[in-house]
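The records we work with from here on pair a chain with its fold. These numbers are not coordinates but entries in a learned vocabulary of local backbone shapes. To see the layout at work, look at the sequence and tokens printed below.
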Amino acid sequence: MSAPVWPGRPFPLGALWDGSGTNFSLFSENAERVELCLFDGDDTETCVELTERTAWNWHGYVPGIGPGQRYGYRVHGAYAPEQGHRFNPRKLLIDPYAKAIEGPIRYEAASTLPYVPNGADDADLHIDESDDDAAIPKSVVVDETFDWEGDDWRRPRVPWDETVIYEVHVKGFTKLHPGVREDLRGTYAGLASEASVAHLKSLGITTVELLPVHHIADEQFLAERGLTNYWGYSSIGFLAPHALYAATGTKGEQVREFKGMVKALHAAGLEVILDVVYNHTGEGNHLGPMLSFKGVDNASYYRLVPDEPRFYMDFTGTGNSLNPVHPSVLRLIMDSLRYFVMECHVDGFRFDLASALAREFYDVDRLASFFDVIHQDPVLSQVKLIAEPWDVGPGGYQVGNFPVLWTEWNGLYRDTMRDFWRGGASVADFATRVTGSSDLYQEDGRTPYASINFMTAHDGFTLWDLTAYNEKHNEANGEDNRDGTDDNRSWNCGAEGETDDPEINALRMRQRRNFLTTLLLSQGVPMLLGGDEIGRTQNGNNNAWCQDNELSWFHWELDADRESLLEFTKRVIRFRAEHPVFRRTRFLEGRAVGDSPLPDIWWFRPDGRRMTRRDWQWAEGHRLGLFLNGDAINELTPDGERIVDDSFVLLFNAFHEPVVFTLPPPRFGRRWTLELSTDDGDMGEVFPARGLVPLEGRSTVVLRRL
């Protein structure tokens, strides 16, 4: 293979095919030489030097090179870890801007370590001269054209107050789905299939949030255990959809298939949000492999310890932290985000460990340049932005402290609700979270939908397991059950794991319905963990990040309890969609609003009387009623019409014993009908003002005013 190189252009970075050839550009501020390495079908390597350098971008144009061309880089420079530099041209590197990467790291084929692992403390100071091209997946030139068939005009653009998020894994969702063609199961095409879309639509969710789909680099120790990084929080390609989720091929076909999935979900009215991991990469610490960034320009891409640049700052628990303070690294993040919005049509992002991106120097800074750049960007400022508002560094827990355009995973909501339903949280804390967490979001100009409410997520117990296990059971992970959190705030209802006891099983089902009802009728944006609606279990594993098997995959053959849970979930989601009083865009005020003489919300005790200061301070209170006034919403539709809804009473009993609630006086409503019950109450039953409503222990009732 011969490859003449013309000067080319420094921008855009990455590989861009123009129909006649391909322009290649790679950023490296500290490199001394850069070689572009082209591979043919027999893996024969041809390296050509990129001699042009503009603004630290090494670039060249190769005529005749087009889509499907496999390539990588060898970057020359100092191997001086004590100075932060780890250049090693014997190690083939993935293009940080690759639009496609052909597959997994093959650790068994060659050593990807840039040093000789001799067991000594200073092993990483001594360069390894062995070649690793057999282990490194090749970057691939892609054809970026795609027929979106008018998708620009039919993007769902679901308002935040109408949003119901469904967190789901691309592979796990369809891997065992009998309605999906076998060759499409576990892929982008499988998620876009008729059976998959039918389930999502029937469920009533509006927005699919995908666990990481940027190309994943499994950790070597997982490969040695026969495991993989199933969750995918180990990115190595920020512009490349993960190749192994594609049914159609890995030589660029994965890009087209990913776009096809987005187009199909949009056609069904469903948004697509990506869980993105810009806080670290899959290259680990100073003893980790060299796959891409570490060999391209270690000192630029990573945050190094200031006085000891041999070592990495680690705010993520993975061994390294990406360096968004460097303008070229910040540009990579922004280019990745814009690419997936503009070229792949995604609707938003959930930022993993977002606090790590907000560390300008050491402390978390809500005015960090990362936020400034996004806020001024005409594209990114208009999509959905969700922060996981913590990292593992000092001061990293930042719930409630992100800027005004951002929403946040509300970990305080999760913890409070779990505690309440097992009898451990105060009614005051419960009430604050049910009404949108105004203590976190109101003062800085945000609204209730700044709070992304969730009971369960990929990290932790599933809903089924939350009510069946007190302790984690992570033995399958190979770490002697030491991994995963011990702070589960779960309750097994009287037996650890599966049981035949009918009373325990009935209580567990009631608790699952309590969690779902509370989640979906709280102010804010609900997020449902995919599979919770069908009773997915991980057998007590609360950290199934490396379990790419039936422990994590969805099982679609449902018993009677799981069928019942599915139907209940659909019903509550539909109920939320029908009633704007449960998804307000302004915080409740506890007073008369607009023309209604009644307050917009009114809290009461089981005896029907208003909650007093003493009642709110009573630590043992587990029972609470609230009135929501549908005549006092005081908000407008997009067409400028006033929103009016039914009024409701919600009754919560988190105590283990039954209770009889007395309904409020007639001025709140003369007659009430039963709309929802987590204890299988008689729907449609009518109660008068001051009427008595019995609640089983651990149950919820929702009444509508007639």
